[in-house]
Amino acid sequence: MYAVVETGGKQYRVERGATIDVERVGEPGSEVSLRPVMLVDGASVLSTPSELAGASVTAVVLHEHRGPKIRGFTYKSKSNQRRRWGHRQTLATLEITDIKKA
Question: Any alpha helices (H) in the chain, and if so which ranges?
């Protein structure tokens, strides 16, 4: 059985025991509940909101770390305007502990 969950504006395909890197969702060691978008159990696929009303995916936050650095550069020609910028997102590693159907 696997599920597609949504967190941080992105969707992830998860199975029990899998680890994923998502945007920060909680403190390390805490348990979080993720909202399933789609749930696949063998031959049946649950995807409508009424079917997913009782479904849940639980995960444990293992640790937090920083993602890769993203570098950017903006400029406007003929006016000597230049700006360099960088960003590193704080990510959390989650371990999926349970997927419940309802």
Answer: none
Residue among 19, 25, 51, 20 at smallest CA distance from 38:
51
Tell which wins on pLDDT, 37 or 86.
86
Which residues does residue 19 pair with via DSSP β-bridges, in sequence order? 95
b/e per residue 26-52 (b: at least 16 CB within 10 A): eeeeeebebebbbbbeeeeebeeeebb
- Contact status, residue 13 vs residue 2, Cβ threshold 8 Å: yes
Quick: pLDDT tens for 60-74: 999 999 999 999 999
Q: Between the CA of residue 22 and those of 16, 32, 64, 75, what are the distances in Å?
A: 16, 12, 10, 31
Tell me, what's the pLDDT at 48?
87
Closest CA to 38 of 8, 6, 16, 60: 6
Angle of CA points 9, 63, 19, to nearest 5°: 60
The pTM of this model reads 0.82
